[in-house]
Amino acid sequence: MKELVNSLKGDKVIWAFVALLALFSFMPVFSASSNLAYMRHGSGNAFTYLLKHAAQVLVGFFILYKVHKVPYHYFRTISKILLPVVWILLIYTLLKGTIIEGANASRWIQIPFIGITFQTSTLASIVLYVFVARYLSKKRETPITFQNSLWELWTPVFITLIFILPANFSTAALIFSMVLMLVFIGKYPLKYIGIIVGAGIIGLTFFILVAKAFPDAFPNRVDTWIARIDNFTSDKPDEDDYQIEKAKIAIASGGVYGLGPGKSVQKNFLPQSSSDFIYAIIVEEYGMFGGLCVLGLYLLLLFRFVVAAHKANSLFGKLVVVGLGFPIIFQAMTNMAVAVELLPVTGQTLPLISSGGSSIWMTCIALGIILSVTKKEEEIAEEQAEKQKREDALQKLIDKQLQEDEAAELEDFSIVDKANPMSAVLNK
């Protein structure tokens, strides 16, 4: 075990927070999955789901370990190569989505021969964030013009968002927000950001008008997320979303200390209790105290991302940490805000806690790249420490040699004085 811990490179605090969140996830996932077990098998035995979640977490940490071993500057080129591949996957997802648990599954594709579903938009977001960081770091030394950035930066961004938007508005909005944050931190001109935001609003409005005018033209989830926004902004109580009502009941039932592990009642009525609404189950079982502890872990992880970005010695490394780390925290905050009805239902999972293989694995890929950046800083620090150690050792050898030379000279003078008594008399 000690050897395994020693083999982990990078920021040990990030490793610790990630491990804590993953370990904690077993308790609410095991509890919330009993509803799925009862509906599917009639037994209520969620042990199979617990083993499945354990396997997904182990695979995720294996991916995390392997990715963090790769030098992070390799991802600069990888992002450029993978972006067209991601577009093909997104198009395939829109055209060949399958049904998952009765929902429109245009967000997922099924990996052949394995049977595992995979959400392509999560991979697209990681590739896009690294691509944007690559562009901003490359243009650091030369002035950015709107015309060049429109073609080199924003065209790939908008192509990616167009392929995600019809099926997954919340993810498209999250990606666009994080890209804007990233370019702002990367000192992209504010006047250009304003133009892009305006263009984005106009494009979204046009898309909504077309979807309203031709509902059959977009057979995916356009009507669903438009209805969710309408319901959220409506004041009529009978239009409140069923899932939100059950989530609020769960949170209210939890009180300060909760009902206790495994004693949730609303898990039997709340759809997606082990994924999208797992935070409501956490608060119901562990109370406000448990909910605040989970929130605190994400905030501490955010603080550590800020520290890691500050320590990175290259602009690309700083932007990669910000571009991959902040969306994880923002997604967690979005999931919690949905549970307490601060936001409309979005379908965003709670990173590292919600069940779901592809979401866990994509989060682990992002964390692996971040740890690769911190590993580089650690390696530089080790090299500097080793260099200083060698210099100190060399200085000690020099000092020792000088002392020996001085001692030898004194000894030679002593021998000369003894061999020539007249020198002693003359010296007197």
**Which percent bin holds the helix content?**
over 70%
Class based on secondary structure composition and strand pairing: mainly alpha
- The fraction of residues in strands falls at under 5%
Helix run count: 14
Q: What gyration radius follows from the Cα positions, in whole Å?
A: 29 Å
Principal-axes shape call: globular
Tell me the count of domains.
2
Tell me, rounded to a whole number, the average pLDDT: 82
Instruction: State the strand order across the main sheet.
Output: 1-2
The overall strand count is: 2
The poorly predicted ranges are none
Biggest beta-sheet profile: 2 strands, antiparallel
Detailed description of the structure:
73% of the residues lie in helices and 1% in strands. The longest helix has 63 residues, at 357-419. The termini are far apart. The protein has 2 domains: 2-385, no CATH class; 397-427. The protein has helices spanning 2-7, 12-41, 47-68, 74-96, 120-138, 146-164, 169-185, 190-213, 222-233, 242-254, 278-311, 315-339, 357-419, 421-427, and strands at 108-110, 117-119. Helix 2 packs antiparallel against helix 11 (278-311), helix 3 (47-68) packs across helix 13 (357-419) and helix 4 (74-96) packs across helix 6. By secondary structure, the protein is mainly α. A two-stranded antiparallel sheet has the order 1-2.
List keywords for this structure.
428 residues, mainly alpha, two-stranded antiparallel sheet, 14 helices, 2 strands, 1% strand, globular, cell shape, peptidoglycan glycosyltransferase activity
